[in-house]
Amino acid sequence: MSESEGAVISELGTLAGRASTEGASGARSPSARDAVRALRPSQIREVANAGFGVPDVLPFWFGESDQVTPQFIRDAASQALADGATFYTHNLGIAPLREALAGYVSRLHGDTRPAEIAVTSAGVNALMLAAQLVVGAGDRVVAVTPLWPNLVEIPKILGATVETVSLTYGEDGWVLDLDRLLAALTPGTRMLMINSPNNPTGWVMTREQQQAVLDRCRQNGIWLIADEVYERLYYGDDATVAPSFLDLATRNERVIAVNSFSKAWLMTGWRLGWIVAPEGVMEDLGKLVEYNTSCAPSFVQLAGIAAVRDGEQFTQSVVAGLRASRDYLVTALQGIPGVDVRAPLGSMYLFFKLQGADRSLELCKTLVRESGLGLAPGSAFGPEGEGYVRWCYACDTGRLDAGVARLRQFLETRAGL
Questions:
Q1: Distances from the Cα of 38 to the Cαs of 12, 29, 57, 137, 383, in angstroms?
Q2: pLDDT digits 0-9 by tens, 298-324
Q3: What residue ranges define each of the domains in the chain, with the CATH number in brackets?
Q4: Fewer CB within a 10 Å sphere, N or C end of the chain?
Q5: What does DSSP assign to residue 294?
Q6: pTM, 2 dp
Q7: Residue 225, Ramachandran bin (φ over 0: left; ψ between -120 and 50: alpha; else beta)
């Protein structure tokens, strides 16, 4: 096809698209721009919506604990409100929180200064800001999947294209084909997005894999966005934190690490996160914060200080509880015919193969309606996730037992049909 022929066909397609949005009066109906309309909706929310009105539903679909935020953090927020901490703050966060976070990151990953820390209104806001900082229309982005859909869709909002490199599932659980990922990191690639420990699979990138990827990104001038929100939810060896790109990279190169208060301190509803990035981009990052949210709420930031300063023992107890829940649920599920599950090294999920999950969204809706069991469909995390479901195990064993019983009964009933 010649360029002129392609242009004519493109124009005809545009006219047809315009005609389809016109009402009887000929006026064009209001609609979002194409990039936004093309975004995939959350299938996790779709399953949760199917659970509205279902009595006694057991919701394992969202990634949060069934425990409330600890009292010492809530007390800090209450005191901050009582003291009148209700005003705007610096775009990049209040100085005491940036200092506390710099100390925290330094203890885990080496010397980090407050000038390399930006406070954000949640981890997902941090991911959006990081992408806005380095990605524009037409840029090429690579992402390792299956993956929380927000990470794949955010670059598309900005007009970028996203190529995915999928983990594979086998006897050792979810693993990365490193050679395939390195081959995808070609010159001209603008950004790589890696989430480790991974949501939904629990896969954790090894230090050796990180070094190889970092070297390739350095070689080709690629920005590396590391979503390390689950770094403390790690069950390998005796380490208290998962391997991080911050352990290997200097603070003045093209590496941006994103984190959140949601998981390690059970603060999902507080919407507080942070970014570690080169000091040289902080002024521009501050502009983006201003044009997105202006700043995180001051009383929430003060609660964040309490979490970082006083929360280490609590975080370690959370991880110990999650490890026990993971092991408990894996053992229980391995006793059910039709389930293929492996214990992951990190996060708070099991992402396992389930009989009948080749259409996982439909299956999960049926599970909710017929059994009151709420799981997240694998297809919510990309086509690579089809055939699997995600179960968040951040709850007590009594609730896990009830969920396992419902799944077993559901599968037995279907087998009997």
A1: 20, 17, 32, 15, 16
A2: 999 999 999 999 999 999 999 999 999
A3: 43-69+313-410 (3.90.1150.10), 71-310 (3.40.640.10)
A4: C
A5: S
A6: 0.91
A7: beta
